[in-house]
Amino acid sequence: MNDEDINKYENDFPELIKLFNLSTIAALKSDIIRLIFLYKEGGFWVDSNATLGKDNGIKILYDRYKQYDFVITILPTCRNDLKTSALISKTNSKLAYDTITKITENFKRHYEKEKITQEYIPYNFFMGCSCGVF
Q1: For residue 113, how many other CB atoms are within 10 A of its CB?
Q2: Which own/partner contact pairs does 106-112 have at CB distance under 8 Å and 24+ positions apart?
Q3: Tens digits of residue pLDDT in 25-59
Q4: CA pair distance 101, 110, nearest whole angstrom
């Protein structure tokens, strides 16, 4: 999926797709693509930096969470912030949809801040989706 492919979801998420097309932050764009794809298609995503301690770690992770509609696993980092390690979603999960809705609101605020300053506005996935969703 790439920048052009995301436009096919414009009817489902018009405001978010508009923000996607205005954004220059690659991490933000990746998060949007990932969440929309998992919401629409269902599936399981593991961060390339995730370390699984066992050979069958992905199977263990999937088996543990597959009964839930939507899961975001997180790991603390050395910078004392949170890092998404895996996302699991069933097709059309209500919680995934609610997360995308909240992300749209927060990304809109982020973009508005970027428009009025030349300073860097830090981006973080969890600022995007907010713990209030969970």
Answers
A1: 11
A2: 106/130, 107/16, 107/19, 107/23, 107/28, 107/32, 108/15, 108/19, 110/28, 111/19, 111/22, 111/23
A3: 788 888 888 889 999 999 888 777 666 677 787 78
A4: 14
Rounded to whole angstroms, the Cα distance separating 84 from 12 reads: 25
CA distances from 47 to 21, 58, 66, 94 (A): 23, 11, 17, 23
Would you state the pLDDT for residue 91? 94
Provide the residue count of the chain: 134
pTM (2 d.p.): 0.76
Nearest to 89 by CA among 50, 29, 41, 31: 41
First to last CA, the chain: 27
Nearest residue to 17 (alpha-carbon basis) of 100, 125, 115, 87: 100
Residues in the chain, pLDDT under 50: 80, 82, 129-134
Q: In this structure, what DSSP letter does residue 132 have?
A: G
Tokens for 2? 């790439």
Are 9 and 17 within 8 A, CB to CB? yes
